[in-house]
Specification:
mainly beta; Methylamine Dehydrogenase, Chain H; 4-stranded antiparallel β-sheet; globular; repeat
């Protein structure tokens, strides 16, 4: 049994964070969105080993990526981000996103839609990015 702090559901996968800051993912493994080294479907929560030792506070899932915010305000991504952070392609292992949008932002929370993501910083700034279809970003595609 897990001591769950937060959970997020994507279209075909899920992720949770324990109160100890560990991240577990399961479901459809296409696109690397489970944070594993291979595209495997997993039918039970599996620890994202590349985040061991990192104190994660929350997670967010989209259709093809997973995001994690640490207790200290760092943002990690894995899966396909469609180049929305300027790094197009598949990332099967987690990667820390430093200096998002050209500054040293401390991320407070992150939310994901199917093809877009929004970051809120500790200072209250809002950074939506990704596909701006139907105006979901409020400013077009960034």
């Amino acid at each position: 049994m897990f001591d769950v702090q937060s959970i997020s559901l994507g279209a075909k996968h899920a992720a949770l964070v324990t109160r100890q800051g560990e991240v577990f993912c399961w479901g459809n493994g296409n696109s690397g969105k489970l944070g594993l080294k291979v595209n495997l479907d997993i039918d039970h929560p599996k620890c994202v080993e590349s985040l061991e030792g990192v104190a994660v506070g929350s997670v967010a899932c989209s259709d093809n990526q997973t995001c994690a915010v640490t207790e200290s305000g760092e943002l990690y991504l894995w899966g396909i981000d469609g180049g929305t952070i300027g790094e197009s392609g598949r990332q099967f292992l987690t990667r820390k996103i430093a200096d998002v949008f050209g500054g040293s932002l401390r991320v407070y929370s992150v939310a994901c839609g199917a093809w877009h993501t929004a970051i809120v910083t500790f200072s209250g700034q809002h950074y939506p990015y990704g596909s701006g279809t139907f105006g979901v970003l409020g400013h077009g595609s960034l």
